[in-house]
Structures are given as structure tokens and as C-alpha cells.
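Question (not urgent): is this output format expected?
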Amino acid sequence: MIVTLTPNPSLDRTVEIDELRRGEVIRALGGRVDPGGKGVNVSRALAAGDVATVAVLPSGGAEGSQLSALLAPLGVQVAQVPIAGALRSNITIVEPDGTTTKLNESGPELRRDEIEAIERRVVEVAEHAAWVVAAGSLPRGVDSGFYAELVAALRGAGNSRAQVCIDASGAPFDAAVDAGPDLVKPNTEELAELVGRPLRRIGDVVDAAAEVRKRGVGTVLVSLGADGALLVGPDEVLHGWAPPVRVRSTVGAGDATLAGFLAGGGRGRPALVTALAYGTAAVSLPGSVMPRPTDLDAGAVTVTDNLDLDRPLGGTPS
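Got this back:
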């Protein structure tokens, strides 16, 4: 069973249009409302693949009730932590070529007792979990050290043997890395921000991931966009990719990639293959729809340990 925590979840409305033109009235070609937030998306993708998952969520306002109602038929068990404020609503605008424009609200401001209740709930639910995934931005009122404190709390919980994954960015991600999670999953931009330098080649990403591992992280899974993904662990460095597909939406694709990695065992080549199958399928689906097993094509994924370290990022692997 895999537990996810989304400290700042949302309702995500996706609108498909022919072209985004400022100042005009535009007729939508399609639309949908999905449960949102990085950890929520991971749980949705896991549940779609019949992997048991519990999503720990702060819940407040009508939006909180609607979020739980949307997750119930998807097979995601929800552990709610009541808060006084209302959850946020986000809007994603998708054009036919896959261009995605997001309008994200900031979300509620949490009190200290609410923050502490969220941490306690995660530790409690993690008792029988294989993994705990803490993911996404932190709401107002939450200190940037929250994820690091959560890693320490889970490590100190004698009733839990769960491995811990952090998928975040900025100061919260930086602090969490030093707490020594088992896995982190940045994209290229987040990893570049973490190490404080641009990453232009595959070799740059490998070096940056190795630098992060020296700070105490077990494994680094890096989303490279069209270039696939890179896995840097204690025993191997692997690069994987899949053939290009028609992109309908990139929302949640990185979260689907992480879900696939965990569903595939959480380590090594088989997990990377599954991760890329999930991520590739996700971008071919509308909005933040998560792929089902019938959407996956693991046979199209290529994974190699013979890396072209000088190959620049931004192209399609050959």
C-alpha cells in the first residue's frame, strides 16, 4: 500500500480550446473537473492500476467535500484532516498542440495545529505502507522545513517501515533532501534550481543527481520531458525514453511517471520502464486523466545504461 500526502490539494478544471486569445470570448471544445495536486494524482494513477493507496488530504469548504467525492469512485481511499479554510480551485487551458496554460490559486492558510494534525495523520496511516509520497507545493502558513520534518517523523516512527519519496521544488525540496528521503523525483528545472546551475546535457543531469545523492538521498528519478527520464541510484545509472506521442495535456504527467515507478517496484530497470509507460500514456490523455493498464505500452520503452553523456537536452533520444 502506498500513502500520498498532498498538503495543498485542489479542484482542477481543464478547458480545451482551439487557441488562447487574450481579451476575447472563446468557446470551449471540451472540459472536465478532476481532483488535483501532485500526491492526489499519484494516488489516482496507482488506483487506476489497482495498487492500494491512501491519500492524506487537508479538507475544508465545499471544495474539500467535492474533492473527496470525486476520488471515491476512482478507488482512492481518503484520510481527511479537517481545516478551517477552503481548498483551492485551479484552471488549466489546453490548446490542440498540447500547449498548457495554468492558473493556480494559492490555497488556504493553515494554522499550526492543522499542520501538526496533518503530520500525525501521515505517520498514523503509514504504519502498514510500503511507501509514503509527500508531493507538491506547501500552503500558506507551512514552513519550508515541513517535508524535512515529515521525513524525520516517519523515520522516528517505530511502527512504520515505509520508504519515503519527496516530489517538491524550491526551499521545501532543498530542506527535504538533507533529511535523507529514499527517493526524490525532480524535473530538470527543479534539479537545476537545487544544485544552482543550468543542466544542458545528459551528463550534467547525472552529475547533479549524484550530487543530490551525496546529501543523503537514496535514489534520484529525474523527469526529462521529451528526453524521457534518468534514474540515478546506488547501483546503476539508467536513461529511458519512449517514442513521441500526440500530446493532449502535460498536466499530471510527472505524477503519473512517479506512480508508474512505484507500481513497477520502486527500483531499477523494471520500475523505470513502467514509469515511462505511465508518463507517456498520461500526456496522450485529456486534462489530468491518469492512465489505466490498457493505456500503457511498456514494449515501446527503451532503457539503457550506455548513456551519451554529451548529448544535449531538448532532443529526441535515438
